[in-house]
Amino acid sequence: MTDKTKxxxxxxxIVQKLLHHAQQTPKLEVCGLISSRNNIPFRSYPIENxxxxxxxxxxxxxxQQIQAMAQMRENNEQLFAIYHSxxxxxxxxxxxxxxxxxxxxALAIIITLKTKGVLELRAYQIADSQFIEVPLCLD
Length: 139
Known about the structure:
CATH class: Alpha Beta
Strand content: 35-45%
Order of helices and strands: EHEEHEHEEEE
Oligomer: single chain
Radius of gyration: 14 Å
Structural class: alpha/beta
Shape: globular
């Protein structure tokens, strides 16, 4: 597991895009990827959630994920994070989130709409069925 436990600065424009994406369908989980350049978050790639029960789970649309990863390579970007929202749960990885984490080098960013109308965004490093919170700050 790479050491991303020190505070990570995320550009305000990316955070605003993620929060806006989550607000568009507040009863369904949204998901996507965040790329980086030189380990600095660079761009968000919203991806359709194809889960059978999108109100409680997320599944990145495979073709859109492949397209986003190809675009990252073309733009000299790397996968930095996978994000999704929790419409009714706290911004903490669920057992499903932990079990389905397949990119240990990428952060897992979770957005929640549950906190009394306040949007919350938290990041985690998930590997070996364990998670560590990574402090975030706006850049």
